[in-house]
Fold these 3 entries.
Entry 1:
Amino acid sequence: MNRQSAPHSMIQAPSGAGITEGYMPGFGNDFETEALPGALPEGMNSPQKCNYGLYGEQLSGTAFTDVRPERTWCYRIRPSVKHSGRYNRIDLPYWKSAPHIPEDVTSLGQYRWDPVPHTDQDLTWLTGMRTMTTAGDVNTQVGMASHIYLVTASMKDAYFFSADSELLVVPQEGRLRFCTELGIIDVEPQDIAILPRGLVYRVEVLEGPARGFVCENYGAKFELPGRGPIGANCMANPRDFKAPVAAFEDREVPSTLTIKWCGQFHETDLGHSPLDVVAWHGNYAPLKYDLKTYCPVGAILFDHPDPSIFTVLTAPSGQPGVANIDFVLFRERWMVAEDTFRPPWYHKNIMSELMGNIYGQYDAKPKGFVPGGMSLHNMMLPHGPDKNAFEGASNAELEPHKLDNTMSFMFETRFPQHLTLFAAQEAPLQDDYIDCWTDIEKKFDGTPGKK
């Protein structure tokens, strides 16, 4: 159990004033933290009267009867029913949910995009979200969506939560602050953030413009993958995930709260900030993680292991060994395998692979896959190195080699990913991507022993 106290100020003035910062380490831990001394009840969850006139309330991220229930007890200035009123349907036209299959779009193919460019518009976390692909069904809580965010403006007295999904945020440019009910999380490139389903937050720009990737997970929560024979160490270590300390707002100002529910967006008006949790304890909380702390493992003699060894987080499905989503990281590492083609091999996969480049150069595609860009190789469609990558790796001197200046990732899902109209018609699609394999040569020679 981690316990931490913090000064009571969070953002009791306009954004940036009197902000409490701090984190508690661990993934899936039971945390406890209070922003006022004695705000957290001892030895029980629901006392007859809470200190400071607070209200006790539980936020549940799983069913009560789950094998390991995830829930957090919050002690807040107002119960959440006071943060909810009559809702008006609003439209966020670029944020789509599955099932979303436009009639005039073909998702069958290998696709790659240049970075989605910034604009001169004021774009917040909500108005700057651009859905690229959807998969599964948000109503039955299976599958996912992938997005690009373009954020130039902070949300002012405006708040959001998704009842549909958990969000995995992968920054590529700029710095963002997530002011959540449970505390403050700051992220920048080479960080990720996990925002649980149902958590209320506001997003502020610390350094802009900000651009990055989002995996919207409709299904079971992300968890650390089972390590099997790898054992207890390397990959992503639980201690490197950070949860925020308690911090709260006590502000009587006109505000709005937007909710994403079954793929639709609704807004309600409030007279105060909903970020009023003074203390909390539990294991359902936002997290941040520094991708530079990920310790990759690999072959040290021959052959190229499956990319599943680079899994940072996995969201399980109902089928053992098959993920609803895997979040996979390809970062700097040593290549040492003998008599081995070292880049990713040619393959077809039952899983759909959406990749993004955070910085640097990806080894299987030395040209064209630029930082901020994305690619999609849908289920059972072949892909692999282009000719230059193949020839280079096939003829290289196989000395130990440091693969450097690279960090890319993959959102992999068991569902086919369908392009949105934005991805097909507005995003900077590389029309010639499919041609990167056209100059691969036939090398077959039937001579026995010929390589």
Entry 2:
Amino acid sequence: MNAVRHPPGPSWLKSIGPVDAVGVEERVAKYTTRSIKKASKLWGLRCAVSMVDLTTLEGKDTPGKVASLCQKAMRPHEGEGIPMVAAVCVYPSMVRHARRYLRGSAVRIASVATAFPSGQAPLKTRLAEVRAAVADGADEIDMVINRGAFLAGDHDRVQDEIASVVEQCGPATLKVILEVSELETYDAIRCASFLAMRVIRPGDFIKTSTGKTSLNATLANNQVMLDAIRDHYLATGIAIGMKPAGGIRTAKQALQFLIAVKETLGDEWLTNTRYRFGASALLNDLIRQIEKEREGRYQAPWTFSDATDAY
């Protein structure tokens, strides 16, 4: 499906409406008061495991490190009933290694691209990086938007660049990273969400952060983006996925994010085809909590193998 750009313009920006910041923050505060017990909690923990994008994005990444990460992704723990994670996310140069280790597995290969995390490279260079990652076997591309152009008010350029990346992705799923901390306001986050959603395809995602800035995913900025996805879906019938990334380190936090998804978008989004967590350090706490629910006691932290916390 080819992306078709819809120039935003003043009237379009006005039509998406402002964000009620006080209302958003009051709503997400209530998510932290919800109590989930027993079978429902165990289901939520397992669901969250299946939504994790297990990630390594470091200059010292090696094929061996990627191999270990892939093994962890396919078998997070020896215990029964713990699913595989959704994807392994690596730099483009590591995609071919991940492909070798994950061949025959349901775990997908995601690659950051478009000069991650800054996006500060010529467009032709960013598009070449996308093509290379897809050619090497990436199932998913996590791109960063041009925040400088967005903040300068050049929304047409931002949207055109996203549309160009869509064309280079081919069959690969696209996740558009807004980098919410640099957009600064809820209104800007909502605007950037709509800019992306109007040119990406059904099944593609919008994503909060690279995890490389001081502020990453929060319940509030996640809620602003969920509300935008809901409004876009009601207007167009097109279902867009969501990925909060960075700062989600505990099972308790993950369950609060899933509550937000259920109460805003419904059960149809409680699947890794529509919701992901970019939070590798989260995985071991999820497993630890699952084992506690199953056995009635916590296992020691060293029982679990390490997962790289890149974002």
Entry 3:
Amino acid sequence: MGRHRVRVVPPLDHVRLVEILRKLDVDEGGVRIMAPKGIHRLLWVEGFSTRGANILKQEMLARGGEVALPRAASLLSGKTTSCLIMGTLSQLRSLVAKLRGQAVFGLAGLAEEIETALAVTEEDLRWDCRGRIFDLGERSLIMGILNVTPDSFSDGGRYHGLTAAVERAKTMAKEGAVIIDVGGESTRPGAPEVPVAEELARVLPVVEALVAELDLPVSVDTRRGEVAQRVLDAGASLINDVSGDPEPELLRAVAEHGAGLVLMHNGRGRTYTEFWSDVYRGLAGMLEGARAAGIGEEKVAVDPGIGFGKTVEQNLELVRGVGSLSSLGRPILLGPSRKSFIGAALDLPVEERLEGTLACVAVGVFQGAHILRVHDVRAGARVARLADRLRGRGEEELGQH
């Protein structure tokens, strides 16, 4: 009888842990006390006082947690360092309470940052796209890609005409897309720049038709303020800016219309010092810029920019670690669809990258992505729906089959 009575429970989020404790018939007071003890967090801190980091380590050790420090920092070498804080929510909240009263080495300020990072929960995440409110705690969202260009890397020319574009959008809506993302300029490396007038000629009639015929938010993939202004005037709900450095005119147009906005990290032409830190800081900087332009935080989603100035390994790292962007406090969009890193990893041409795309969708959902931007909507929506259910999200009840 002594064997096979112990099993490992995979890491759980707060909602699932509370559910298990209640199924165990734990008293509600006990649930409130125990749940934070069962949720583990890893917090990366960079550019922090070396002396302060050593104090952090001692405080976490006293609580049963840990802080990983570079060897040099343990010897108090250098003024600043990076470190990794490891502990349960309960331990980390206790740490925050202690540090608030510490006026030295930036500890009080760090306490505020830790508290802010821990306060971000998926259940409270909302995205306002011009009055269309998405609750990101309920299910993943599928953004259907509608390229109206003659030279897109994947489906260039297929939906270049107005009739073909509208019919494709209607099909994607039936297949499970909740947002249609219209693009009039190819973003593949080496693609020629399209004049503003040409981009508008491609996207504006499509936006006008979709707004009139579909009850779905229409997004436009553009980096230009003039295009953003015109398509928002025509009724588009959000702008998907892949530039990595939004034009002031684009931000003004989004703010004026109360539209949604996707901010994407674009690493083309840049050199990374520390990959994840650079991506995180880049997105955080753009969020600050959007706020300064008068765009409410609830309007913005972030995109790590798969395929834009990253190596194959860095793109794979973005998929498996996308949840590390959650402390930005905004919905995360992931756009792996048919991209070259999948082709490189599997040695496949663009037309044979569906399975690789779907693997990224499933992993992305589990790792914390909220919006999946895909060409193959039917397959992507089905994978995301089941991944949501496997995570314990989604409203549908699955029967026994």
